[in-house]
Design brief:
The chain is an all-alpha fold and 116 residues long. It has one domain: Tetratricopeptide repeat domain (Serine Threonine Protein Phosphatase 5, Tetratricopeptide repeat), CATH 1.25.40. It is 85% helix and 0% strand. The protein is elongated and about 80 Å long.
């Protein structure tokens, strides 16, 4: 077996470990396995997308965005990754807007109480 074949088998093995861990709901283990894949094969968009999805399910949207950005950098025509990134950004915008509105509401309440 050549070194190239061995490397491909190792990548396939860790990708499978990541996929199985993901299916079992063990997202941290999936991320670790996918990271192992991306170290050996930095152009592996499937591993980057798997990491993005796992990060998203762990409520780590910024890590998910980084993984998606890497996928899009590798393949700018990957419409699935572009759509997922768009959804994540919209969700973050909505969450940040809600937080800002709550902060503004508290400031307004405090200002009104000072007037009383």
């Amino acid at each position: 077996m050549t070194q190239q074949q061995s490397k491909k088998e190792e990548i396939a093995y860790w990708k499978q470990v990541g996929d199985n861990s993901f299916k079992e709901g063990n997202y941290l283990a999936a991320i670790e396995a996918y990271e192992t894949v991306t170290i050996s094969d930095p152009q592996n968009t499937e591993a980057w997308k798997g990491m993005a999805t796992a990060f998203s399910l762990l409520d780590k949207p910024y890590d998910a965005l980084q993984s998606l950005d890497r996928t899009i950098e590798i393949d700018p025509t990957d419409s699935e990754s572009l759509e997922i990134k768009d959804l994540l950004l919209k969700k973050l915008l909505e969450e940040n807007q809600e937080l800002l509105n709550r902060i503004k509401g508290k400031e307004s309440d405090e200002s009104n109480q000072k007037l009383i």
